[in-house]
Amino acid sequence: MSNADRRNKIPAAPTFTTGGNLLSNVAPPTELPNFVTTVPTAAASAPNNPEVPQVVPVTVPVPVSEASQDVETKKLFQVSPESPEKFSPAIPLSKGEPTLPIRSPEDSLTTLSPESLPESISESDKLGDVMPGSGILTWMKGAVSTGGIFQRVAEKAKSSVDSMITTLDPQMKEYLRSGGDLCIVVASDKEVKVSPVREAFQSVFGKATVIGYAAHSDVTAAQPVGYAAAYAAAKQRIAYIRSVHSELTNNVPVLAVEGFIQETVTDRWYEMSLLVLSQPSLGIELQMQSQATPVPGAAVAAARAASEGYAHALTGFSVTIGSIMATNLQVPHTQWQEASTGVSRREILLFAARSLAGSYKKLLAVAAES
Q1: Which is more confident, 101 or 331?
Q2: Are 306 and 317 in contact (CB under 8 A)?
Q3: What's the CA gap between 290 and 352, in Å, rounded?
Q4: What's the domain range around 157?
Q5: 156/272 same-domain check
């Protein structure tokens, strides 16, 4: 087959009818916006020609010089005398020194320069006015000078360190809180008496030195009965301490702890302790009675039976209630209160000594003021 025959067999291009083709139904594209600043010649020559698109001329702003713009800006934002209530953001003419706009009582707009500030205003106040937020400097200065927040932070940190040390080693509490201007002498070398007194005075005064010396009473019974016998025994112990330890002056307070029993009502006996603090130089003598622990009447009867023919039977018994109660409860004689009521003797003495220390501190304050 020749090339001419092949060309003749190529199908002809398809023809589209006006009404059956989908593309013929699509509307022509809309005109795009034109940003041409000048009008085309064709549009100018044939404004009424529908085939030539009409172009709307666009006005382009003409650049203005800086001098003329500055003048126009001043005119725009200038405050006229007729309208003083309008705010003027215009830059002041005196650009060399800063000025602070303020309102006068007559509501007129004025300026205040640093040289015109009152002399009563301090430099820190000027700094706080010029630099917002600089009041923190004044706050820090006041905190340091008055010993306010920084002192409390330091005390809190020291207290935390001391608590950690005493938790790891409870015996360090006595070392950390010993010292200061206060020294208390306890008329006893028993730890069950010295330890609560030390803790009480150190908690009230912060720091205090508390030491104990052995002391006894030869003029009263081993187990005093009644408040009067207990007070006489405590006074005897204090006198013994001062007579043996001549280095103790009258300015050193001496504290005695004396346990006694008392019948409040018929056949109702209670054991308690009397604390007496004496400081002759200030004429101070304080007495404090501790919490009471009930004692069975059978234990008192046994102590009375064992004290027949005792030389100090008028002031009490020859056998202590603690020894009888400890034997019946099968506990050490220093733990019978806890075994009987659940409260140890150390806790009982601690609360009484703390009350005594608080009263003593108030008397010292009164003596210092007078």
Answers
A1: 331
A2: yes
A3: 5
A4: 135-168
A5: no
